[in-house]
Amino acid sequence: MDSMQALPLVRKGGCLVKPILTVSNASFQVRKQHILHGVDFTIGRGQIVGVLGASGCGKTSLLNLIAGITRSTSGIVSVNYDGQETEIVGPGPDRGIVYQAYGLYPFLTSVENVAFGLKLHLTTIPRRMWGQVTGFWRRLRREHLKHAEELLVRFGLGDAVHKYPHELSGGMRQRVAIAQALIMKPQILLLDEPFGALDEATREDLQRMLLVLYEENIQAVGQGKPAPHTILLVTHAISEAIFVGDRVMGLSRHWNWEEQGFSSCPGATVVYDKVAPVFNSTDSVDFEKFFGQKNEIAQLVFDEKVRVRPQDHCTFWSQVRVNHGHGVTHDV
């Protein structure tokens, strides 16, 4: 499969765009149900990758492997921070995940929901009890709430800081959920169809919010700093994956597994992995840029009649080597 190895990674300002996530020949099955087979890819720090596929092809299962919620049946899923590769064996604060169903506590306000993760991660019950006596916990909680409020204001929710989830629109609740994940400063953010239940206008608004995060990545790389946000976005919408991501991957069960000697499908695998055009958060949605790639993805990833040879269409890193595309893995 297409590899990141031997890629010249030095970028403007001397910053290195390094691999942050590697999925190496990973397969996953539940009892006798084969869900994923031979999934193999590497993601560079600061990328936003759109992950596409038909319903039931294993997109959420892939995110759960990366989140550490489940373990692969075979193969390795690993992260690489500060040059040290570590196999994922369970959940951790370095990986945040946001689902389509808003994971908010109904009895907490927006700011309390966002700060809740800091409370659990940075303190223990005994420490909080002792902190009540010394005043330490009250000071720390004020800091947590201040940080959470600043993040909500940044996401355009300054007027909703003290509102409860039932008082918010769907789009506002999803912004709170993303802020709830980002306040932990995860190395990798996993989004599982977070905008699927939203109307088109709200959905585009949140897509642009992700593009703002990508602009922060490009700015950081240009200054010789590590990009702060690496995101995998699972979606059914081809246009959304192309618009938000700098790279689009497609999972499918309809690949040439018969030629590999299997009598039945051993699971979905990555059949498509290519560069996507990079948009600014203020750009209009130019569907002409989407047209060719959208049709290609529709055929290769979603058409059940097509048997894809994955090696023919998983060419992202080969495209990067010839400087095809823009963004954090290219010249900025």
From TrEMBL:
Its keywords, alphabetically, are: ATP-binding, Nucleotide-binding, Transport
Q: Please indicate which superkingdom the organism of origin belongs to.
A: Bacteria
Q: Does the keyword Lyase apply?
A: no
The record's annotation in Gene3D superfamilies points to: P-loop containing nucleotide triphosphate hydrolases (3.40.50.300)
Q: Which GO terms describe its molecular function?
A: ATP binding; ATP hydrolysis activity
Domain ABC transporter as annotated: residue spans: 21-278
Q: Which Pfam families match?
A: ABC_tran
Matching entries from InterPro entries are given as:
AAA+_ATPase (IPR003593), ABC_transporter-like_ATP-bd (IPR003439), ABC_transporter-like_CS (IPR017871), ABC_transporter_ATP-bind (IPR050166), P-loop_NTPase (IPR027417)
This chain's protein is named ABC-type transporter ATP-binding protein
Q: Which organism is it from?
A: Candidatus Uhrbacteria bacterium GW2011_GWF2_46_218
